[in-house]
Amino acid sequence: MIELHDVDAGYRGRPVLHGVCLDFRPGQVLALVGPNGSGKSTLLRAALGLIPCTGGTVLYDGVPLDRLTPRQVALQAAFLSQNRTAPRITARRMVLHGRFPHLGFPRRYRREDFRLVEQALTAADAVDLADRPVNELSGGQRQKIYLAMAIAQQTPTILMDEPTTFLDIAHQLGVMELARRLADEGKAVVLVLHDLPLALSSADRLAVLQNGRLVRTGTPEEIYQSGVLEPVFGVRQERAAAPDGWRYFCRLPRKEER
Length: 258
Fold this sequence. Notes:
The protein is an alpha/beta fold. The protein has a single domain (2-257), classed as P-loop containing nucleotide triphosphate hydrolases (Rossmann fold, 3-Layer(aba) Sandwich). The chain is built from nine helices and twelve strands.
């Protein structure tokens, strides 16, 4: 399990995160939510060691992150970043990159690697894209390929920064169903999401950030009942009962409610 204890982090001397305490629990989907600039992506990068912590500690199964090599980190956590390149290689070859941490040098793919890549392409609903050049795919299609690459890495934790970007509604729901399946397999799944109703209806826990601070964590029910979302986002979060659970939606407060 990955744990953040009183973590401070930022960029070039500019602080972004302040004293964040959070854990990524196996078997759970955790949604990081907050306004733009609240520190969600920075939190993921600090947890991976991609930016240094200026305070606090990140632990991987009790071991401080700064004692681990990049390869050891890559064997523990896969990362679907927000900004990705589109190289002139096939999608299948791109997904094979997810197997790098498991290979020696020089890299020689094994039958097992190709099998896991095909499984990952199937899980990401991207089999039909496997032989196409990544640089010729649409934004949504590329998203599927990078999601498949993260799955192929076969790590106990998967961190995704805005994985539903560029995807239509059906595929957004598909990503959340995939996150649920991965969590049910025992993985810790952490997603940065901007869609509050999607986060509330799909995640096991939410972590609400504002101005680099963790305002509240809890189950969707706890977050909804706390009323924290309106002051953080400036919207009213409401819900209606449906046969299979709650349906959440947002609206701007009316003048008399402000």
